[in-house]
Design brief:
The complex is a heterodimer of chains A (313) and B (170). Chain A contains 3 helices and 12 strands. By secondary structure, chain A is an alpha+beta fold. Chain A has a single domain, classed as Thrombin, subunit H. In chain A, the strands form 2 sheets. A 6-stranded antiparallel β-barrel of chain A has the order 1-2-5-4-3-12. A 6-stranded antiparallel β-barrel of chain A has the order 6-7-8-11-10-9. In chain A, strand 3 and strand 4 form a beta hairpin. In chain A, helix 2 packs across helix 3. The relative contact order of chain B is 0.17. Chain B has a single domain, classed as Arp2/3 complex 21 kDa subunit ARPC3 (Orthogonal Bundle). The mean pLDDT of chain B is 89. Chain B is mainly alpha-helical and 170 residues long. In chain B, helix 2 packs antiparallel against helix 3, helix 2 packs parallel to helix 4 and helix 4 packs antiparallel against helix 5. Classes of the chains: A alpha+beta (313), B mainly alpha (170). At the A-B interface, helix 1, helix 2, strand 1, strand 2 and strand 5 of A face helix 1, helix 3, helix 4, helix 5 and helix 6 of B.
């Protein structure tokens, strides 16, 4: 018995040392870790499993939702209830389809405005909160032309960048992740800075640092990506968010502000991976129309012009 | 160690991992994600002992480190779950004394795993690990894990009993 416990303890020590060695190797490797091959291998093996699981889990969570909504119908006959359930389910799935269509529409619109070539993909898995990082798996991989360090966006704006890519899936580091740093430009003043994430739990907030301490930034200022060298990992001109609060740090080297991202990171579904950046920087042509400053068209009707083209002559 | 025991462990770990990233992390719950993988490790360790528990914990943790969308240093969950599996297995004999022992083990494992994982991150200057992030996760993680364990642990034990009717366990 005591020999057994000794052997168990030896095994415990061995496996703990193995874990620490793996952590050290991976940590020292940084962005180009020797263990990345292992990650790609795991993505190749487990990616398809996640795709199947997501296909099953999606309707399940929808059903849980619809059942919780069907509370008050106890005196109804079993028949009616079953019918109701079926109809609700159908309604919910068609609603889901409609939402997806709208998202795809917005994505295509944004991609078209910026002349990005995107591969559409769906979010199939989300990392547990316990890992502290904000990453998701999408169902497009190297087979679809997705490579590491490509920009990921959706109809609202910047989602993040591809971290690792497997054959049929890829892992995306979200822009709200504290380790994600995005070069941005203010739409109004052309000032340059960068944002880092604060985590989803705080409501899609980013920290903005402007490189010029003298620059003026006000609430409501809008940001687009600045574009990195060689367009990786971020292509230029993607809407990022709007300034919510400017932090007063007079005399400091940089100016900081809190930015609300355009993308709702808690409800990510359809995204696009930019597989081909635009030939020309789209500047801020991709930003959504400014809500308050939309000019009201004043229609002046000249006498004589009121008649339609058909009534002339 | 019988083949059936290993097969059951592999199947349960795979199922827990798949459910965790595709369903549980999508639930609109504040704070932590219910940790089904941790409960599988605790459940099997409680029925098979520390030796099995630590090997299972290492394998489950390593899978969790590798399965997409994991993006942290490989080995962090392996380290944490190896310890969890060993300690939960060591508490096996105590479970005969009181029905509350498994609950206490789950609560301790839920809190301990997050603290240990965060501690390993802090050693490497992980920007994600902040005091506010830890304090936000910790209470919700313990509550979710204890509530989920009321269903998950009996389910794991039932699977073990069905596959090993000769009563090797306990």
């Amino acid at each position: 018995m005591s020999r057994d416990t000794r052997r168990t303890r030896l095994l415990l020590a061995l496996l703990l040392v193995t874990s620490v060695s793996l952590i050290t190797i991976d940590y020292r490797g940084g962005e180009r870790s020797p263990l990345d091959g292992l990650r790609t291998l795991a993505a190749a093996a487990f990616g398809p499993v996640e795709q199947v699981a997501a296909a099953i889990a999606g309707p399940v969570s929808g059903a849980v939702d619809s059942v919780s909504r069907l509370g008050d119908g106890r005196e109804e006959s079993q028949q009616l209830r079953r019918e109701n359930d079926e109809l609700t389910r159908r309604l919910r799935t068609s609603e889901l389809d409609r939402n997806r269509a709208a998202e795809l529409d917005a994505l295509l619109h944004l991609a078209g405005a910026g002349r990005y070539r995107v591969v559409p993909a769906q979010v199939i898995a989300i990392g547990p909160a316990q890992t502290f990082s904000w990453t998701v798996t999408i169902d497009a991989g190297t087979r679809d032309g997705v490579r590491p360090d490509m920009t990921v966006l959706n109809g609202d704006g910047l989602v993040g960048r591809v971290k690792t890519a497997g054959p049929s899936t890829a892992t995306v580091l979200l822009a709200v992740d504290p380790e994600s740093s995005v070069g941005v430009r203010l739409e109004a003043t052309m000032e340059v800075g960068f944002t880092t994430g604060q985590g989803v739990a705080d409501g899609d907030l980013l920290d903005l640092r402007l490189l010029d301490g003298q620059s003026t930034v006000v609430r409501g200022d809008r940001l687009v990506t600045f574009g990195s060298q060689g367009d990786t990992p971020y292509v230029p001109g993607v809407p990022v968010g709007a300034v919510r609060r400017v932090l007063g740090t007079p005399g400091s080297q940089t100016r900081t502000a809190v930015v609300v991202a355009y993308v709702d990171f808690t409800a990510l579904d359809l995204v696009g991976v930019v597989v081909e950046p635009p030939r020309k920087n789209p500047r801020d042509a991709v930003l959504p129309p400014r809500p308050q400053s939309t000019p009201v068209p004043t229609v002046t009707v000249a006498p004589g012009a009121a008649s339609g083209p058909g009534t002339g002559g | 160690m019988s083949y059936a025991r290993v097969a059951v462990a592999v199947a349960l770990v795979g199922l827990a991992l798949a459910l965790q990233v595709t369903l549980l992390s999508r639930l609109p719950l504040p704070g932590a994600t219910p940790d089904l993988l941790l409960l599988v490790v605790v459940g099997l360790a409680l029925s098979h002992g520390p030796g099995f528990g630590l090997v299972l914990g290492f394998c489950a943790g390593l899978s969790s480190d590798l399965v997409p969308p994991a993006d942290h240093e490989i080995g962090r969950w392996a380290f944490v779950l190896t310890l969890v599996g060993y300690l939960a297995g060591a508490a096996r004999d105590e479970t005969r004394r009181s029905a509350f022992v498994p609950l206490a083990v789950v609560a301790a494992a839920g809190a301990g795993s997050i603290l240990l994982y965060a501690g390993l991150g802090a050693l490497m200057d992980d920007a994600h690990v902040t005091w506010t992030a830890v304090t936000r996760l910790l209470p919700t993680a313990v509550v979710y894990d204890v509530v989920l364990s009321a269903f998950a642990i009996p389910a794991v034990l039932a699977v073990v009993r069905r596959t090993e009717p000769d009563g090797v366990s306990r």
